[in-house]
Amino acid sequence: MRHLHISFFFLTFFFLTSSLFAENNITIISQIRNKSRVLNDSSIGAIDADGKYTINSNSGLNCSGYIKWIADGFYMPIRKKRGETPLFMSIQELRVKHPECRGDRYTNIFEESRDPYFGLDWTRNIAVKLATLQNNREYSNEYFDVRDSKILDYVEDRGYPLENIKEVIIEQSKTFPNRWYLGSISGPFGDNPRLHQHYHVCAFIPFIDEDGKISVTVFERNKETSFDYLEKRYPGTYCHLVWLSTEGEFELMDP
After folding, report:
1. Cα angle, residue 242 at apex, residues 37 and 113 outer, rounded to 5°
2. For the chain, which ranges sit under pLDDT 50?
3. Which of 71, 27, 34, 35 is nearest to 207 (CA)?
4. Backbone phi, then psi, for 237, in 5-degree steps?
5. Region at 193 (left for phi over 0; alpha for psi -120 to 50; beta for the rest)
6. Per DSSP, what are the bridge partners of residue 54?
């Protein structure tokens, strides 16, 4: 009888959690979809801490600016409620490099000229910055890395093959339904020399579909795309994941 009571408790908890997961994440996805439709595209665009677009960005966002804009949707309501300014994350703080925990003596030579770990540093910095505000505590730069997949081995500073990243996110969502993810895509890039470089970033938000299964929405460069679209553009690449919490208020800045 005790075993039945325990089983009933966990089933009830699972369905309640799944229900909240579905409702909250679908609301977040819907807001991103609606406001992304009027965003402009820019090769250097981002919004700084004071809510202003960077110079010459034509009021548009690039891939890194776009995922910052999404993350600021969780960051800004907390700052606003506390009466704190500026309301948004600082671009300069998110650009801070962390050669102490990634790269090697060879790639360090190209830190200034090529910035081979930009996407990795950017996504890690966003995760740390947001969680620090949410939880009033400090975190290490690698704290939010998704390293514990049971279906694939994590590759240091690269993550997992892009072709398998959807399965990893779904696996994680079964255990952690209140998380969303930032991905940094990396692969061979450039010439003289050709480096393994983090050159694109995107956001992944899981949700429960109409069939009751976990699915994942892909947002990148001011629009919703898909895993198939990513894989066609970046074949043979890796995707490094960091996780962020979907809990709390979500309010996107108007473009």
Report:
1. 85
2. 1-17
3. 27
4. -100, 175
5. beta
6. none
Residue 85 CA, chain-centre distance (Å), reads 24
Burial of 210 from C-beta contacts in 10 A (0-12 / 13-18 / 19+): exposed
For Cα atoms 22, 25, 27, give the angle at the middle one, nearest 5 degrees: 105
| 206, amino acid identity | P
- The CA distance from 138 to 114, in Å, is 29
**Which is it for the CA torsion 246, 251, 253, 255, positive or negative?**
positive
* CA geometry: angle 49, 28, 204, nearest 5 deg: 85
Q: Nearest Cα to 251, choosing from 88, 95, 127?
A: 88
pLDDT score, position 116: 84
Q: Do the strands 179-189 and 238-245 form a parallel or antiparallel pair, or are they unpaired?
A: antiparallel
Q: Rounded to an integer, what distance in angstroms lies between the CA atom of residue 109 and that of residue 111?
A: 6
Spatial separation of the C-alpha atoms in residues 104 and 117, rounded to whole Å: 11
Task: Name the nearest CA neighbour of 245 among 13, 24, 18.
Answer: 24
Neighbours of 67 (CB within 10 A): 25
